[in-house]
Amino acid sequence: MSGNRYPLKVEVFPDYAALSQRAAEIVIGLLKEKPDAVLGLPTGSTPVGFYDALVASGVSLARARTFNLDEYLGLPRTHPESYYSFMKRMLYDRTDLRPENCHIPDGTAADPEAECRRYEEAIRAAGGLDILILGVGHNGHIGFNEPGAPWDGRTRIVELAERTRQANARFFNNNIDEVPRRAITMGIGTILEARRLLLLANGAGKAPIVQRLVEGEPTPEVPASVLHYHPDATVLLDTEAASLLRR
């Protein structure tokens, strides 16, 4: 990828709770400055503590707009493992967010390609993302952008890597056959347009990919390494996830 490389900010915390609290404080600070901020939000196990801390703070989200990174294709919103259901449990039902301000790709849209275009346009119409919170997969994926994904990609339909489906099987009764094979995801190009990026990683299992992300050369084989090309990207880690870093 051509373009400027920037210093990647890395913050390390003693444990998952402290990492989650820091992430929440960053978003709370943004909301106090800009109550109608546009937030890009993730799902999965890593951000659960962040959502709990955000809810516990009592900060108002009444004017905020949210856009989720991704959604499984073909999974109805009522399915307990749809990302819509996750967000409903974690945030929508626990805050004063307005339903019309909560955006997530429609995995059951009759025309998924048109849904991808609609989602991109909705982000643009909202004025772009003020901040985007990311997790990172063991293979370096962000959103559902798997290794080799184009760094200029937009919101699109993707095939999920086998390793990603295996990792997500724990949410589907440990049955990989129940894990959808495709999803709609923001592309890396979409992600890079957010004004601020915040990537969270915790646990020793993430230490190898964190080392590659932070200390390795940026490469499409580690999609998260694209953060080196963003002018305001921060990685928040607990000590276990940071355990292989040399600095």
TrEMBL record:
<dbReference type="GO" id="GO:0005737">
    <property type="term" value="C:cytoplasm"/>
</dbReference>
<dbReference type="InterPro" id="IPR037171">
    <property type="entry name" value="NagB/RpiA_transferase-like"/>
</dbReference>
<dbReference type="GO" id="GO:0019262">
    <property type="term" value="P:N-acetylneuraminate catabolic process"/>
</dbReference>
<dbReference type="GO" id="GO:0004342">
    <property type="term" value="F:glucosamine-6-phosphate deaminase activity"/>
</dbReference>
<comment type="pathway">
    <text>Amino-sugar metabolism; N-acetylneuraminate degradation; D-fructose 6-phosphate from N-acetylneuraminate: step 5/5.</text>
</comment>
<dbReference type="GO" id="GO:0005975">
    <property type="term" value="P:carbohydrate metabolic process"/>
</dbReference>
<feature type="active site" description="Proton acceptor; for ring-opening step">
    <location>
        <position position="141"/>
    </location>
</feature>
<dbReference type="InterPro" id="IPR018321">
    <property type="entry name" value="Glucosamine6P_isomerase_CS"/>
</dbReference>
<comment type="similarity">
    <text>Belongs to the glucosamine/galactosamine-6-phosphate isomerase family. NagB subfamily.</text>
</comment>
<feature type="active site" description="For ring-opening step">
    <location>
        <position position="146"/>
    </location>
</feature>
<comment type="function">
    <text>Catalyzes the reversible isomerization-deamination of glucosamine 6-phosphate (GlcN6P) to form fructose 6-phosphate (Fru6P) and ammonium ion.</text>
</comment>
<dbReference type="GO" id="GO:0006046">
    <property type="term" value="P:N-acetylglucosamine catabolic process"/>
</dbReference>
<keyword id="KW-0378">Hydrolase</keyword>
<feature type="active site" description="For ring-opening step">
    <location>
        <position position="139"/>
    </location>
</feature>
<dbReference type="GO" id="GO:0006043">
    <property type="term" value="P:glucosamine catabolic process"/>
</dbReference>
<protein>
    <recommendedName>
        <fullName>Glucosamine-6-phosphate deaminase</fullName>
        <ecNumber>3.5.99.6</ecNumber>
    </recommendedName>
</protein>
<dbReference type="Pfam" id="PF01182">
    <property type="entry name" value="Glucosamine_iso"/>
</dbReference>
<feature type="active site" description="Proton acceptor; for enolization step">
    <location>
        <position position="70"/>
    </location>
</feature>
<feature type="domain" description="Glucosamine/galactosamine-6-phosphate isomerase">
    <location>
        <begin position="18"/>
        <end position="229"/>
    </location>
</feature>
<keyword id="KW-0119">Carbohydrate metabolism</keyword>
<dbReference type="InterPro" id="IPR006148">
    <property type="entry name" value="Glc/Gal-6P_isomerase"/>
</dbReference>
<dbReference type="GO" id="GO:0042802">
    <property type="term" value="F:identical protein binding"/>
</dbReference>
<dbReference type="InterPro" id="IPR004547">
    <property type="entry name" value="Glucosamine6P_isomerase"/>
</dbReference>
